[in-house]
Amino acid sequence: MKQVLSVASEAVPLIKTGGLADVVGALPAALAGQGWQMRMMLPAYPGLLGKLGETEVVWRDEALFGGPAALHLGRHGGVDVLALEAAHLYEREGGPYAGPHGDYWDNAERFAALCWAAAAVARDGAGDWRPDVLHAHDWQGALAPAYLRYWGTNVPTVLTIHNVAFQGRVGTDKIGALRLPYEACHPGGYEFWGDVSMLKAGLTTADAITTVSPRYAEELMRAEYGQGLEGVMVARASALTGILNGIDDTVWNPEADPECAPFSATKQAGKAKNRKALLEEFQMDPELSGPLMVLVSRLTPQKGIDLLPAAAEALVEAGGGLAILGSGDLWAEDMVRGLATRFPGRVSVKIGYDEGLSHRMFAGGDAVLVPSRFEPCGLTQLYGLRYGCVPLVAAVGGLADTVIGASPATLAANAATGVVFHPVDALALRQSVRQLCSLYADRKTWGAMVRRGMKADLGWGASAARYAALYDRLLAA
């Protein structure tokens, strides 16, 4: 069995702050049938080692970026996990990236240490195990392929960009602390507008670069999406591939979800029960004549949250309602609370995040709104499709790759699975909400869209095969 080491800052079910964790956590099981065995390397955040049961120390460093470190090998959910214990870096009150007072001041060093350990394992092995390929994720893992290249080690490497907006950018005064070679501090290396970009270091050194959808790979080569790295992406276009994310269709399964009444594409009675329960949970009008739309999102400009008033107005006008779950910028939280005050019984808001509630929202909602200005892949629309919650999405990134917008052609061909709008502005969103409400009123057409989305293959099978093929090509080369 060929071996791959996956290095990342989070992975479900051990630690999660966003969609990165879902992808990293799902890949090992998805690859198992593709001839590749994956081990995940993560920082040993507080409590993580305890989740691994009995562990074995397979690597040590007495001076890893300021203190001693040990790499523990354990298992969780049938997956091998390498947890990097380094109390001076990871024993912190708070989350993986920030504490009560904001981002940790030494995040660059914290994740550089993770990358250094991953590169050392790829080069020298850990115990009797050594990977054939190293797969790094986002800026937190990006220095691993860079270190291997700078050391002259010939181990194939892959870097996956989950969101190019986060780049690990720090001042050049950190070059020594990050153990980077000064001679690589130039526009063709890791230098970025006078600073160090940890993500760019990986982009310029990895053997292959992937993104989490084909369209996002294309978008990254354009200034409006590339966040200043579009030139790097164009230069490395031959190494760039878009591989669409999947979802764990055992966790996201409306026929066996403990959070909701069971239902399926052909047996929809449970869907109606879940809709009624969701209206009660959000204290909304039980007699909505239009669609019950849900939004589960970070409340930030990237997610198009400032466009919600246009959506809410059109939806309420058509007899529908909007249930919102999320947290984020204070102005955005205040705005959605204001919408709930303006449209009592029609718009309802819960600030925060609740995994169980998110399942109930997809199970009970008629439609899910994803108005992102950019979206590398997005999982929300995939959960919506799986649960018969028709997606209304912006025509960007993975949203455009996964939702077939309703048009005369796609409706005639019995292919539409949602509503797609462009450009990403209030006028286009308002019109798309009106279109969705018209489709909802046509029960035959709406039912066909719901069933089509629920029957779509949204799992990891096809995507895992593409990752395995990529690893095979790198190993052969």
From TrEMBL:
SUPFAM superfamilies: UDP-Glycosyltransferase/glycogen phosphorylase. It catalyses: [(1->4)-alpha-D-glucosyl](n) + ADP-alpha-D-glucose = [(1->4)-alpha-D-glucosyl](n+1) + ADP + H(+). InterPro entries: Glyco_trans_1, GS/SS, Starch_synth_cat_dom. One of its GO terms (molecular function) is alpha-1,4-glucan glucosyltransferase (ADP-glucose donor) activity. One of its GO terms (biological process) is glycogen biosynthetic process. Keywords: Glycogen biosynthesis, Glycosyltransferase, Transferase. The keyword Transferase applies. Residues 3-233 form the Starch synthase catalytic domain. Synthesizes alpha-1,4-glucan chains using ADP-glucose. Belongs to the glycosyltransferase 1 family. Bacterial/plant glycogen synthase subfamily. This is Glycogen synthase. The gene is glgA.
